[in-house]
């Protein structure tokens, strides 16, 4: 197995953050949890992450704004997830440079497949 990668999980819902952390850890990687995009950006060190998984709808900087800012700072893939999907939101996510867009609830295996592709 390869060296564990660090995945940033950004979601204002604690239960979702913990669930995503368990999923990331279950496939042999590490997760850093943030309750907002602003918390991630304030923490800095964006180069430490191999992938970002972010909710779309959050207070403050939303997931689409975060994806746009991350694209300006790094080439690390951003996976956006939302419970409120629409064609407009998906289009905006793609325009912001999101690597993948998932609608909650999603099959955890879909996310695992994406992470294994990204993280190797």
What does this structure look like?
It is a single chain. This protein has a single domain (6-119), classed as Response regulator (Rossmann fold, 3-Layer(aba) Sandwich), CATH 3.40.50. It has a 5-stranded parallel sheet, sandwiched between helices. The chain is built from 5 helices and 5 strands. The mean pLDDT is 95. The termini are close together. 43% of the residues lie in helices and 20% in strands. With 120 residues, it is of the alpha/beta class. The radius of gyration is 13 Å and the shape is globular. Helix 3 runs parallel beside helix 4.
Quick rundown:
This protein is of the alpha/beta class and 120 residues long.
What labels describe this entry?
Rossmann fold; 120 residues
* DSSP strand tally: 5
- In CATH, the topology is named Rossmann fold
Number of helices: 5
CATH superfamily: Response regulator
> What class, by secondary structure content?
alpha/beta
Shape: globular
Give helix and strand order, one letter per element, not per position. EHEHEHEHEH
CATH class: Alpha Beta
Level-2 CATH architecture: 3-Layer(aba) Sandwich
Which regions contain 5 or more consecutive residues with pLDDT less than 50? none
Instruction: Report, as a whole number of angstroms, the end-to-end distance.
Output: 9 Å
What about the largest sheet? 5 strands, parallel
- Order of adjacent strands in the largest pleated sheet: 2-1-3-4-5
User: How would you state the average pLDDT, rounded?
Assistant: 95
Tally of discrete structural domains:
1
User: What portion of residues belong to β-strands?
Assistant: 15-25%
Any idea what the radius of gyration is?
Answer: 13 Å
Helical content stands at: 40-55%
